[in-house]
Design brief:
14% strand, single chain, globular, 262 residues, Rossmann fold
């Protein structure tokens, strides 16, 4: 598995990308954190520079692999986990399995490699990989690396979890577990929920999602929930400073023991 480690200090910040997303997607956030503490990004199996892992995929496997990767790479706890989308699910489950190693959360879920013809068939249906908004905000070299990563046949294996439905169900059933006073910072996109161009049916769905995010922040008595109307799903690309500031606040809360500021 590929891991990129920058900076020094504690707690270590571990950034977990969303489904079929890459370590380079954090390149607008990572420089803002590496100057104050150790920070790392990584690619899950079959993504970018990481080899395919055992199949079928499960969240338990993702957690085991991340934990092993961190320890073998010398990235020592305590950790602050920063998860985007599916990465937020992995972060929550990682914290639940290793609660003493995780001190804070920022939340924005031998293998045969498919043949190139399988990837070409997908391109015929969906078009060849290209850089679209908001990924065009990344520096050019990282845009090129994303295109390269999406052109790898193993990309079709990534985040292919046939047991996710069962795991999501179990997670929902246990969604009210408490994080005590562990700092948790939730960032939500409210752009579509409050847009005049969103029809009433979709607006209701987006508002329900925001309500779910608010419940997520209530997992801890020491939490903060920010809703931005300027970004869509990829807040770390459209408003990287918002993510950087959230991480910094959690770092300070962990280091000082003081609660997050309102």
């Amino acid at each position: 598995m590929h891991i990129d480690i920058k900076g020094k200090g504690s707690p270590a910040v571990v950034m977990i990308a969303g489904s079929q997303a890459f370590s380079v997607d954090w390149s607008l956030v990572m420089p803002g954190i590496s100057g104050i503490t150790q920070v790392c990004t990584y690619d899950r199996p079959a993504l970018a520079w990481s080899d395919p892992g055992p199949m079928p995929r499960t969240f338990d496997q993702d957690i085991y692999e991340l934990h092993t990767l961190l320890h073998k790479s010398g990235v020592k706890p305590p950790y602050i986990l920063v998860g985007h989308s599916l990465g937020g699910i992995i972060a929550r489950l990682f914290e639940k399995k290793y609660p003493t190693e995780v001190k804070g959360l920022v939340l924005d879920t031998s293998t045969k490699i498919p043949a190139m013809k399988d990837l070409e068939e997908m391109w015929k249906m969906m078009g060849e990989p290209k850089t679209e908004s908001p990924f065009d905000r990344l520096p050019k070299k990282f845009q090129e690396q994303r295109i390269w990563a999406m052109r790898q046949p193993k990309f079709l294996l990534a985040d292919n979890g046939p047991y996710w439905a069962d795991e999501f169900s179990a997670m929902y059933a246990d969604s009210l577990y408490s994080l005590g006073n562990k700092p948790i910072y939730v960032l939500s996109s409210g752009r579509d929920a409050f847009s005049k161009n969103t029809d009433s049916a979709m607006k209701a769905i987006w508002l329900e999602k925001l309500e779910q995010k608010e419940k997520m922040s209530n997992l801890s008595s020491n939490s903060k929930h920010i809703i931005t109307t300027k970004s869509g799903h990829e807040i770390h690309l459209e408003e990287p400073e918002l993510v950087i500031n959230a991480i910094k606040e959690v770092i300070m809360a962990v280091r000082t023991g003081k609660p997050l500021k309102d």
